[in-house]
Amino acid sequence: MSTTMTGSPLQIRLKEDQRTRINRGAKLSGESVSDFVRRAACAEAEHLESERSEFSLSDERFAAFLEALDAPPQPNEALNRFLHTQAPWD
Asked: Which of 11, 17, 31, 42 could make an SS bond with 36 (beta carbons 3.0 to 4.6 A apart)?
């Protein structure tokens, strides 16, 4: 299942045993080493992102969370500086 892809290359240093394991994994999956590494790295990144963006709360804590979201921000120096700083793309 090799796909032609253009983009920027990624170079990494590997120990010999790591390279051997990756090569075996790619062969077992029927993918090129590049496709295997790309898929595995993207899957791990997606897992880490979802792990850090989803959380569960008790009903009590969720109500407090919603209350905090609905409350107006309290003025402070950092917020004031942020609101009065021109965005770099403007």
From this structure: 31
pLDDT at residue 3 above 90?
A: no
Residue whose C-alpha is closest to residue 47's, from 56, 39, 58, 35 = 39
Record the tokens describing residue 79, joined without a space: 């917020």
Rounded distance between C-alpha atoms, residue 21 and residue 40, angstroms: 13
- Alpha carbon 34 to its chain centroid, in Å, reads 20
The 10 Å Cβ neighbour count of residue 36 is: 20
pTM of the model: 0.54
> 28 φ, ψ to 5°?
-65, -35
With tokens 């791990």, the residue in question is: 44
